[in-house]
Every structure is written in structure tokens, then in C-alpha cells.
Amino acid sequence: MTMQTLVVLGLAMAAGRRLALSTFGLYLVEGALGLPVFADGAGLAYMAGPTGGYLFGMFVASGILGHLGEKRWDRSPLGTVMAMAIGTIAIYAFGLARLGTFVGYDQALIEAGLLPFVPGDIFKIALAALLLPGAWRLFTTLRG
């Protein structure tokens, strides 16, 4: 389990849509240029590989969560849980669609791309519900 999705989604909610999309977009550009920012590789070939859909999904989710953060969904634990679930579903939708083209959709859902990660994602969503109010205060202070 990595904390990558927690950071992406939490940062997006706390920072807002524009900053979240530009930050995650820069992360993708760095990875595309070959900088070692991804978990298991770098470069355009890596991004076009089996897990590239998850990266694109994180970009989309960062925009969604940034928007929901601007709408103040992160001000309550329930709103945070709902928003993080929406973001996680977006990541899975793009990730599983891409992964399924490489390993088959049954394997992507059951063995490789969904079920093994659900317990960790539930934990990360609960953790975000506890941490986001503090992150929101930090970004509000930084924005002035």
C-alpha cells in the first residue's frame, strides 16, 4: 500500500482545483520526462503501460476533488469521505479500463487492480477524514 492516492486526493481537496490540476499535471510531466517520480518507473512508455490509466485517473480525480474542496466538502468528515470515495472511483475507473486491456478485465477486477486495494483505500479515506481539516486550515493560511 502506498499513500499516493491519499496525498493526491487530500492535496486536491485542500488546495483547490486549479492548484491541484497544475501540481498533478507537473508531476505527470516530470514522470513523462523520465524523472523517477512514479512508484515503479518513468517515461512515456511507462505511462502508456498497464498502470497508466491510474495516473490519468489521479489527474482527473485531482480536478474533481479540488472542485469539491472549493465547495467545502472537506469541512466535515462525512463530506470528506464522500468526496474521497468519488475520487477513488474515478481513479479506479480509468485505471481498470487501461489495466484490463493488458491482463483482461476479470483479472484486473479480481486479482490485479481492484479487490486487493480496496481495504487500503478504505483506510486511506478514513485517515483523510481525520487529517483534512488541518490541511484545509494550513492552505487557507498560505492563501492569505
From TrEMBL:
Pfam families found in the cross-reference section: BioY
Keyword Cell membrane: yes
InterPro entries: BioY
GO molecular function: biotin transmembrane transporter activity
Keywords associated with the record: Cell membrane, Membrane, Transmembrane, Transmembrane helix, Transport
UniProt topology in membrane: Multi-pass membrane protein
Family: Belongs to the BioY family.
Protein name listed in UniProt: Biotin transporter
